[in-house]
Amino acid sequence: MRYPAWKYVLIVLIALVSIIYSLPNLYPDEPALQVSGANAGITTDKSVLERAEAGLKAAGIPFHGSEVQAKGVLLRVETADAQLKAQDVLKRALGDSYVVALNLAPTTPSWLLAIGAKPMKLGLDLRGGVHFLLEVDMAKALELRQETYTSEVKAKLREAKLSYRAVIDIPSGIAIRFESEEDRVKAAELLKPEYREFIFANATREGGMFLDMGFTPEKLKEVTDYAVEQNLTTIRNRVNELGVAESLVQRQGANRIVVQLPGVQDTAEAKRVLGRTATLEFRFVDWDNGGVAPESGIAPPGTEIYPFDKMGGAPVLLQKKKIVTGERVVGAQSGFDEFSNAQVNITLDSRGGRMMADATRDNVGKQMAVLFVEHKQRTRLVTGLDGKVTEVREPYVEKTVINRATVQSMLGSQFRITGLDSPGEGAELALLLRAGALAAPMYFVEERTIGPSLGQENIDKGLMSTLVGFSLVAVFMVVFYRVFGIVANIGLLMNVAMLVAVMSALGAALSLPGIAGIVLTVGMAVDANVLIYERIREELRAGASPHHAIIAGYDRAFITIIDAHVTTLIVSVILFAVGTGPIKGFAVTLSIGIICSLFSALTVTRAVVQIIYGGRRVDRLSI
How far apart are CA 270 and CA 262, in angstroms? Predict the structure, then answer.
């Protein structure tokens, strides 16, 4: 019996690495609060930390380990109850300019973090995740669709040279006002064939003749469903951009979306990015007035006034007509210009490129502005007559000019936005545009993390099931295979250590289904050892020597073990490909476990057997 020395070295190295990278899992996370700016342009420095600390001290909430990090301020508290109380206190102390998010802070020693050893992320059913419930503003979704139809109908009437007084919004539709019955009849004949999603009706009110165009029930349902489905797609894209593993994004009811992000450390960034209903509008600066807003604050007809902080707060006068909106953006990458200032490179779709080209072809030398449109939500505390304090949410729209520049030549599908405050602002703007625009604003209805009692209970039950399963298997192996049973148990320990180390290194989230995958992995590893040991017994019964029986047992069981593990691996890959959420967690754990099981069963146990029986003469085996 001989065994290559390099295999011993390989086993020792893998064992050391597995132990080191498994150690962080012995240090549990603790509750904390993370404070970051409401957008990437707002910085969180020591002054913000001092304000937060003062607020917690005034409220009598104990905290420790407060620090300023790259993406915000972190304050650690003792319990989950203190965490919830501290969140309310900090929201009042810091205002709407900052996002206060629940978080879990690691307690891993710095020397482990220095070598990249981090604890394994736990799924939302265990601990370490965040749960958001968002509500889609259906009224705004309908309003946006009405705006689109209003523009289209005006263009159709102008093309047909039909005169009309106005196109206005009415509940669940639009209405066109005419001066004469003849124009109303001609307009109905023109529009009915093209807009079958409307119910047309003549109406007389306010001394005028109207052609009402009301959405059919089917169209109303389509608008609401589209808003939710589009927001679902956009949220999934944003979650992917955040790099969250095993996330859950699904619809709940008619107009709500549930987002679960297990293992998230930067919950403030997640909340800020997921909830932002941001898009862009490209408009020309009103050249008739030089883009300068009148002192009266009243915009001339066909123009609107918007703030522009980069000009010392001087407002900018823009034309009402939009050239292109963010819906036409298909690509966005942040970078730097020739002066090392932040910029975002924009790519439009084909229609957007044509619209931009048509608008800029005859307007070279004039200024174009980029208007950043964001739907936000204010929260304020209201004390009722009964003395009970309730939180009231007030949605509002914030529009700011982030860039104005002279058109040097005709633009097309690709151009850039400059004048951003920081690389962080550019990266966040690119992320929002790249992930897609939300079809309607969304507001946070609920935010919570899994409480420590539920999470710890699940962890304890999962660990207990693993320990019981492992212990029963270990006892079974020792009783039936004696010394070889002890060897198999050493391989099992090595298998679990490698599995935990790999999952920690990959950043995979462990959930209850993942724990089930670990238990199944233990069974698969034992099955491989049983195949080897039974083959060794067969060789001994056939009269082979102990050394020959060991060699033959491992060699002849090799193909069978490979077949069994590969077929199981194929099934786990299929589960990962077609499954979602918990199924993926089970498949990931099982896949990693199977690969580790092959190494431990065929290499580790073989090396241990070689150490026990390889260097001496043996008359019988303890098997």
Answer: 12
> Contact at 8 Å (CB) between 39 and 425?
yes
Q: Which whole-number Å values give the CA distances from 78 to 59, 75, 109, 321, 460, in the listed order?
A: 15, 10, 18, 55, 21
Residue-wise pLDDT tens digits, 600-617: 888 899 999 888 887 778
Contact (CB, 8 A) for 106 and 118: yes
**How many other C-beta atoms can be found within 10 angstroms of the C-beta atom of residue 155?**
10
Sheet bearing 248-252, strands edge to edge: 248-252, 256-261, 130-136, 442-448
- Ordered by where they begin, the domains of the chain are 5-23+451-613 (1.20.1640.10), 30-105 (3.30.70.260), 139-220 (3.30.1240), 277-437 (3.30.1360.200)
Among residues 465, 528, 477, 524, the alpha carbon closest in space to that of 499 is found at: 524
pLDDT in tens, 95-153: 777 878 777 777 888 888 888 888 887 766 666 567 888 888 888 888 878 887 888 88
Separation of alpha carbons 582 and 54, rounded Å: 42
Of 379, 376, 456, the residue nearest 87 (C-alpha): 379
| Number of residues written out for the chain | 623
> What three-state secondary structure class fits 161?
coil
In angstroms, rounded to a whole number, what is the distance separating the alpha carbons of residues 216 and 168? Answer: 18
The count of other CB atoms within 10 Å of the CB of residue 391 is 10
Q: How far is CA 298 from CA 293, 311, 315, 372, 396, in A?
A: 8, 20, 12, 21, 21
Cite the beta strand spans of 141-276 per DSSP E: 166-170, 173-178, 198-205, 208-215, 248-252, 256-261
Q: Is the dihedral of CA 202, 204, 210, 212 positive or negative?
A: negative
Per-residue pLDDT tens over the stretch 302-357: 888 888 865 456 788 888 888 888 777 777 788 887 777 788 888 888 878 888 88
Per DSSP, the three-state class of 33 is strand
Tokens 């199977």 identify what position? 594
pLDDT tens per residue across span 517-566 = 888 888 888 888 888 989 988 988 888 888 888 888 888 888 888 888 89
The first and second tokens of residue 407, run together, are: 């058109």
d(CA 582, CA 246) in angstroms, rounded, equals 8
Tabulate helix, strand, coil % of the chain (nearest 5).
50, 25, 25
pTM: 0.55
| C-alpha span between 59 and 62 (Å, rounded) | 9
Answer for the pair 121, 510: CB distance below 8 angstroms, yes or no.
yes
